[in-house]
Amino acid sequence: MDCWKGAVSHSWIYPTVIICANGFFTTMRPSESFLTPYLTGPDKNLTIEEVTNQVLPVWTYSYLALLVPVFLLTDYVRYKPVLLLQGVSLIVTWLLLLFAHGVLAMQLVEFFYGMVTATEVAYYAYIYSVVSSQHYQRVTSYCRSVTLVAATVAAVLGQLLVSLAGVSYFYLNAITLASVSLALLCALFLPAPQRSMFFHRREAAEPLPGPAQGPCREETSPGAAAGAPSPQPPAGSAGPHGPVLGVLLQLGRDLRDCYGSRSLLCWSLWWALATAGFNQVVNYVQVLWDLRAPSHSSAVYNGAVEAIATFLGSATSMAVGYVKVNWDLSGELALAIFSALDAGSLLLMHFTDNIWACYAGYLAFKACYMLLITIATFQIAVNLSMERYALIFGFNNFVALVMQTILTVVVVDSRGLGLDISTQFLIYGSYFTVIAGIFLIRSMYTIISIKCRNTSVAAESTAP
After folding, report:
1. DSSP code of 12?
2. Does residue 97 contact residue 174 with C-beta atoms inside 8 Å?
3. Which of 138, 277, 336, 378 has its CA 20 to 30 A from that of 346?
4. Count of CB atoms situated within 10 Å of the CB of 322
5. E strand or H helix at 267, and its extent?
6. Cα of 54 vs its chain's centroid, Å
7. What's the CA gap between 356 and 434, in Å, rounded?
8. Among residues 167, 169, 445, which one has the least CA distance to residue 333?
9. Helix (H, G, I), strand (E, B), or coil: what is residue 334?
10. For the segment 42-81, what is each residue's pLDDT rounded down to a tens digit?
11. What DSSP string describes 49-77?
12. DSSP state of 411
């Protein structure tokens, strides 16, 4: 028995299998594609206005309120307790969906779902704390692949059960409850990490990966490099400010250093802007579908559309690895072009009354976003060490969430403009048009600057 425990504690396979199982059952939620029809149907009897303007916005607010505290708590308690918290929150969410009624109860559902999304940071951070750096690439691919598979299986299963077996949305939610309960069970068997990225770095048996010259390797201009600060002590080390304040100060210094790179700042700006719009679209697209083809009188194909969208997203993400492009020169132009395609897709969804055209617009929108977010992820991550990799990604998502909250308050919430769902998608299409315009102007400036620089160098080299 002691030999078995020792093998488990030193092997990367056991925690990888358990965290992948946890990720699969957490993501395998066949009822999620049919949330709006369920809430507006006979089970809950909410109006489409109540769902759009009073219930769904609560998720955004709770996610924003919980994200930073949960991010710090995740690192401080070393991930596993937060994974358990996520499992409990999922179970509470679906128990309320099954058995509670009324607007207030559904708002409570959205609050706990905000807790679920805020705790997702622990999923990938956990595995990096229990396996050695030589296995990072492999376990990351396993963890990401299993969630994509689970999302596809859930969407297909939900669609088949609804369309072919005539299963009610209530029982889809019961299946989801069983799946998330298994996810919590898997989390209980995870080995407890002995180190974390910020608070418990000194306890690590091996150093966290990163270049010898410092945690941020993003190339900067000569002026920025000249002003770079000297290496800082570990964030979790004892100091006069205490561990929490010390971590916050170190995080602030890291953010300042990394965002000093214009290239990283540009990709991060697109990340924040586009992710805010993407989250809004995904959160409210079912309401638009229900307007175009009411679920009480039409066949619902939400699950099939989500399955195809997931497949297209994974395919476009994979295609990025085989495209050879000078992203320093053409990256901003690509952001402008595909953001314009996203804008066109959303405007199509606003102007059309045809549900199939609406589905097609959503598929094109999600494929373009997944393509660009993969490029942005690579461009940011390739020049960052693990500490700043997590920090920059987390901060970009936080900025995106702040912007999404502003959109929700102004456009969606009944205390703001409280616009109808069709007009909301006109706003979202216009929003992506502005993003495309920003990066088109920026790309033209970059291309012209590089050509002028090359012309100047060529003239100097030919001068006598």
Report:
1. S
2. no
3. 378
4. 6
5. helix 262-292
6. 23
7. 27
8. 445
9. helix
10. 999 999 999 999 999 999 999 999 988 888 888 778 888 9
11. HHIIIIITHHHHHHHHHHHHHHHHHHHHT
12. I
The residues that bridge with 384 in the sheet, in sequence order, are 216
What tokens appear for 337 in the block? 């072009």
Contact 35, 176 (CB under 8 A): no
φ/ψ of residue 191, rounded to 5: -70, 145
Three-class SS of 98-155: HHCCCHHHHHHHHHHHHHHHHCCHHHHHHHHHHCCHHHHHHHHHHHHHHHHHHHHHHH
Is residue 277 within 8 A of residue 435, CB to CB? The reply is yes
Q: What is the mean pLDDT of the chain?
A: 82
Q: What is the spatial distance between Cα 50 and Cα 42, in angstroms, rounded to a whole number?
A: 15
pLDDT on residue 230? 36
Residue 240 CB-density burial (10 A; 0-12 exposed, 13-18 middle, 19+ buried): exposed
d(CA 431, CA 417): 16
* Alpha carbon separation from 43 to 39, 47, 73, 406 (Å, rounded): 7, 12, 37, 31
Span 174-210, pLDDT tens digits: 999 999 999 999 999 998 877 666 665 544 444 444 4
Contact residues for 188 (Cβ-Cβ < 8 A; gap 6+): 84
pTM value is: 0.80
Is 121 within 8 Å of 151 (Cβ atoms)? no
Question: Quick check: 180 and 26 in contact, CB under 8 A?
Answer: yes
Neighbours of 450 (CB within 10 A): 13
Sequence-separated (6 or more) residues with CB below 8 Å from residue 23: 123, 143, 146, 147, 150, 183
Taking each continuous run of H as one helix and of E as one strand, the counts in the chain are 18, 0
Residue with tokens 């809004």: 280
| Among 207, 217, 253, residue whose Cα is nearest residue 232 | 253
Structure tokens at 248: 């916050």
Give the single-character DSSP code of 210. -
Beta bridge partners of 216: 384
SS3 call for 216: strand
CA distance 99 to 95: 6
Using CA atoms, how far residue 65 sits from 273, 334, 398, in Å, is: 19, 33, 10
Tokens of 63: 């996610």
Cα dihedral angle (256, 228, 234, 73), rounded to 10 degrees?
Answer: 10
Give the max Cα distance, the chain. Answer: 85
In Å, how far are 128, 214, 368 from 199, measured between CA atoms?
A: 15, 18, 37
**Measured on CA atoms in the order 396, 398, 401, 403, is the torsion positive or negative?**
negative
Q: Which of 276, 249, 246, 259 is nearest to 64 (CA)?
A: 276
